[in-house]
Every structure is written in structure tokens, then in C-alpha cells.
Amino acid sequence: MKKIALAASVAYAATLLPASANDDLMKMMENPNDWAFPGLNYSNTRFSKLDQINTKNVKDLQVAWTFSTGVLRGHEGAPLVIGSVMYVHTPFPNIVYALDLEHEQKILWKYEPKQDPSVIPVMCCDTVNRGLAYADGALILHQADTTVVSLDAKTGKVNWSVKNGDPGKGATNTATVLPVKDKVLVGISGGEFGVQCSITAYDLKTGKRVWRGYSEGPDDQLLVDPEKTTSLGKPIGKDSSLKTWEGDQWKTGGGCTWGWYSYDPKLNLVYYGSGNPSTWNPKQRPGDNKWSMTIWARNPDTGMAKWVYQMTPHDEWDYDGINEMILTDQKVDGKETPLLTHFDRNGFGYTLNRDTGELLVAEKFDPAVNWASKVDMDKGSKNYGRPLVQAKYSTEQNGEDVNSKGICPAALGSKDEQPAAFSPKTNLFYVPTNHVCMDYEPFRVTYTPGQPYVGAT
Question: Is-above-0.90 flag for pTM?
């Protein structure tokens, strides 16, 4: 196993950013009094340098003020703080408030989109939204109905809006967004409705679509080069995804991108994870179902993928791979190396070389995980990089209409979307976890556009 020394050199994107990128945003990321990006910085460390509240006085904290959004559903995205203004957003209907922190939290402006409530029944797992983004004087909101909106940060006026998907076919949004250079990148939700999921780049100034890369399908839709895009150090080859789906199943294949995004400006690569394949019944979709359940590294200018790594081939348990990628620079075998660390819902923590995609670590972070014994780390093995599935907990081997019991973790994951953090002071990752197991019974399901396409209890 590779030896990784936890040197305190976090890959803060602010220190690496070339002059061509959004300088104002990067300065805000460096200012500890601002929280200008959902993960604090492009590296998604979520580590604050503020020290006014500490272990000695935290016991004395009292409520200073409260603000009710008026929406009684899950709030899964943090507010943004830029200067003296706090930007708060809500679940559906995705109201945005600008609050003046210097004048008793006065509401400076409010944006309330008019969305068709029929989108609510096709949203999986609550009507949440994981956050706004700020760039170049604008707030970017990706609404539940997949409308991407640019709002003037001072007035709340709409600069532009564009539709990213079709809720009538089950496409919705719950993810945050990623501003990079002159673009804004957004994902899509809808894996439980048979959506062929993707990540899309829009022009930050105009909203014009620049590129879209899908999670499964033909190479031109994936935005991959069969000879240059690699997985575990080898070219993925022609039709890498199509060969792992039966017939046209990739068209309803899921692999949604409903989580968080990171960016390394030095390597000019964006990192994110794709979710579960559709349906939840693995018997109906033989093969590895690439590239669902995958860590992606893409060029934000063109969308082309440099490398991919599929964590859970032929997912049989709904272990979405969308959790955040945390970027650090640390010593591996004595050499400074750009790393990506990801704590997946499947219960394994992964560390990869974020430049090459080389897999360095794959270990359980909850010892209760039992669906796989380990990830094969032998580079000479045909199973290199794959989890070794325990037959007892395989929902496919046990068959349709058979209730497999005691699978750990549950579909909720050993870690769900609630983000982890990295401290350069302690050189430790801090990971909120779930300790939950499940019973899982697959059943046959038929695809109908806009209707649930789950196939498991």
C-alpha cells in the first residue's frame, strides 16, 4: 500500500489559480470572513480559519438572532456570506433571500421563482437544494424544475435563465452548482425516474450552453477519448459504457450528478461523482453499468474526461457516488502528490492521484460494512480496483422478490450527502457518518417516462 504522509499542504485553489479565472471569487475564498463557495474553496476542505469561537468559550454561545425561511422542508445547503450580506436559499420553491448582517438582518431583496408544483412528486428524497454559487457579481441558482438562473447579487434581478432538463421525464435538481472561469457547471437529478444523467456547462455571462457530458452512453455523449481517457491507468477503449449495458438501457441509466463539485486550477480539472444506475433491480441491467457510481475528472473548458474510476460496478444497493471530493497536496512515498479523497456512501474511503487517477487507498471507514470484503488493490489482479462482493449480501445473486437481510450500509450510505472536512492543522478528515443497515428486495419494474423507476423495496 502507498504511504501517504499527511503534510499540512492543502490544495487551496486560491493559491494556484491562474490569472484568467475569476479573481474576485478567489480573493473571497481566501478571506476567512467570507463564505463565498458551498465548500468554502474549490478544494472543498470546509476548514475555516476563524478562531474567535474556540474550545474555551464555545460553552458560552447564545442565540444572537434567528431567521425563518418559511419553508418547512429539508435545508441541505449552507448560506453564502459575502462582505456584510448573507444569501440564504430554501428547498422548493427555492426562494433566495439577501440579508444585511450590519442592519439587524434586514431583507435587502427576495427572489421567489414561479415553479410548477408538479415537480415535487418527481423529486427523490425531499425537495432540497444544496446551495447557491457566487461569481462575477452574480448568484447562480439551479431550481428544482432544472431552471438555471443568474441573479444580480446586489438587486436580485434576473440576468438570464435557461432550462437544463425535463421534469416531465423525471429530471429535477437538488445539487449545488460550480462556477469555473467563464462557465457555470450544473448537474441533474432523476436516477429514480430513469433519467440519462449528465453534467452541463453554461456561459456565466449569457447562459448559453457550452457542453454536456453524460454518465453513460456512446463516447461522443460521454465526452471521452477512448485512447486518452483512462481508468486505473489504462485507456478506457471504444464504447466503454455501451458494452456494459444491455441494448438501449443506457438511455434510462441514471448515474445522476446531484452532489458537490471540486476544481483544481493548476491541473484545470473538475471532479465530481455520478450516482446509482437505474433501475434499483440489478437483474434488469446486467453488466458493470459504466459510468454510473464513478469519480470523474473533466476539463471544464471542453468537458473532455481525463480519467474515470468506477467505485461500485453494477451497483446492487443504491450506493450513489456523489459525495464531495476533497483536494489536498500531500507526500506519497516521499513525493509531493496532488490527491483527491472521497468518502463514499458504499462505506469505503478512497484516495486517488487527482492528476492521473491512480488509486492509492480504498478502505472501509465503518467496520460494519459487509456488502464487500475489500477493494482489490493488487495491480496484477483482473479484479484490480474492484470491490470483492460478498455473495450473501448480493441482491442480484439472491434474486428478484427475495429479501436480502442485514446489508451494511443501507441505501442511505455509511455517509450521505452531508459533507466532510479537512483540517490542515490536525491533518485529519472529519466525516459525518451513518451506522445503518438494511433489508433489500428487488422486483421487476417497467420504464414509463416521468414515473418512478425504482424496482426495489
Answer: yes
